[in-house]
Design brief:
3-stranded mixed beta sheet; 23% strand; disordered N terminus; 186 residues; alpha+beta
């Protein structure tokens, strides 16, 4: 009986894979890397407490997206005039998420975990998407700029994207509005 059930489960997972892939909040954001930290618990309250205690983040966050934009450019000179050509930016994104390692989770705990992880993925994908959507802002703003101004342009682009990220966190209360709280029924 166990082998038959396992075969059904594998067939179901394989048949379901395209549905899951299409529902991935990170879909369309290339090159995202993931890191995980372990949490434990049987019930929603236990799992939530473990998330809070084990999170590598400071403050209220239990997941995190780090993005880094690296910029570069070429310079052309004509007499005393120096202009930027070929400004470019590369983007790296690292998402840190929890991973539930407990095996004896209650049904309520399992439901809470699925909803929580889904909310965290949606929130962190929002951060990743903001960075991805603004990855070419520097190249557009820097084309033809004076060599004297290019570093200021890069700093302004960085500050603007950081503000968009901060506004997103403010609007979602750092993702709290996107995840269930223990005791909430779904």
């Amino acid at each position: 009986m166990r082998a038959w059930f396992g075969g059904i489960a594998v067939a179901w997972l394989v048949a379901s894979a395209p549905i899951w892939a299409a529902d991935d909040p990170f879909d369309g954001i290339p090159g995202v890397k993931f890191q995980y930290y372990d949490v434990e618990g049987r019930t929603p309250t236990d799992i939530y407490a473990s998330l809070r205690a084990r999170s590598p983040q400071k403050g209220d966050g239990v997941a995190h997206t780090a993005w880094h934009m690296r910029v570069g450019w070429q310079e052309t000179r004509r007499g005393s005039d120096c202009r930027v050509v070929d400004p470019m930016a590369s983007l790296s994104i690292l998402v840190v998420l929890p991973r539930l390692v407990s095996r004896d989770v209650t049904p309520a705990g399992a439901g809470f975990w699925r909803r929580t992880l889904r909310g965290l993925e949606i929130h962190e994908a929002g951060h990743a998407r903001i960075a991805h959507d603004h990855r070419n802002d520097f190249a557009r703003a820097g084309e033809g700029a004076s060599c004297r101004d290019i570093r200021v342009i890069a700093a302004k682009i960085q500050a603007r994207v950081e503000k968009i990220q901060a506004d997103y966190d403010r609007d979602t209360k750092h993702g709290i509005t996107q995840i269930p709280q223990p005791g909430e029924e779904q």
